[in-house]
Amino acid sequence: MEILGIDIGGSGIKGALVNAETGEMVTERHRIPTPSSRKPGDMAEVVKQIVDHFNYEGPVGCGFPTIVKNGVCASPGNLDSSWLGVNIDELFTQATGHEFTVLNDADAAGYASMNYGVGKGRKGLVIMITIGTGLGSGAFYNGILLPNFELGQLPYKKYDKIEQWAAASAKERENLSYEKWGKRFNKFLKYVELITAPDLIIVGGGTSKKWKEFSHLITIETEVVKAELMNHAGIIGPAVACLREQHHGHLT
Ligand code: BGC
User: Fold this and answer.
1) Which of 7, 230, 232, 241 is the most interior residue, by most CB within 10 Å?
2) In this structure, are 28 and 12 located in the same domain?
3) Which InterPro entries match (predicted)?
């Protein structure tokens, strides 16, 4: 079954049709920049433009860059604070006329890796980390999602959240080399390892495309691998999650 997957990020909103049984993208990715207001109405308008672009009938799976509890935004993350308490499912359904399955973006990317990527068949605790505007995290125990892990929210030194120091947006803002930024990312991974003792860490998100530039700076004990679906995991994952919800009425 082909399902439209949408990956909503702080800088871009991306969509593609996905064969949700095989986990393959069957169209090119269509990307529209996230409106600079990052407000619900403006972003819903862009989501509608993405849906219209594909001329698609059917349910939509959507990865969203905040805590998502039963379709409701439970913390605005790097988006406008007016997102807090918004029922994202309902907002996007009203804007597009399509049924939506919305889940946290890193949880969604993890879904793709656990079902079709490097995480497939991996037991124990697998942590997905996505590097983008924020640092996203998704946790899977024996393949089952533990939703809304928020490891990027740990305070660090003068920063409210470590993601403000170690995400791709910090690299950009401070114009850091991969060498400098990679050391920060490694520090973040050290905390992830210390707190969660994972069996595997999968690194995805936009910056994972530059894996060769920083992977040599990762020195933790835990096995750390690149999500080979890379940036596409953010689109494939929500489509897979959407299919599961259609079949089982829940995500796990
Ligand atoms: C949010 C997370 C999100 C991550 C990546 C963080 O700021 O708190 O929910 O997964 O950014 O988008």
Assistant:
1) 7
2) yes
3) ATPase_NBD (IPR043129), ROK (IPR000600)
Global model pTM greater than 0.85: yes
The residue type of 110 is G
Q: Which domain holds residue 141?
A: 108-229
**Which ligand 1 atom sits nearest the alpha carbon of residue 104?**
10
Q: Ligand 1 pocket, 152 CB below 6 A?
A: yes
Whether residue 123 is found in the same domain as residue 223? yes
- The pLDDT tens digits of the residues spanning 76-113 come to 999 999 999 999 999 999 999 999 999 999 999 999 99
**Mutational pocket test of ligand 1: of 81, 107, 135, 208, the residue with most ligand atoms within 8 Å of the beta carbon:** 135
Same-domain pairing of 21 and 92: yes
The reported pLDDT for the residue numbered 76 is 95
Q: Quote the CA–CA distance of 108 and 5 in Å, as a whole number.
A: 10
- Residue 77, domain CATH: 3.30.420.40
Residue with tokens 């796990």: 252
Q: How high is the pLDDT of residue 230?
A: 55
What is the distance between the terminal CA atoms of the chain, rounded to a whole angstrom?
19
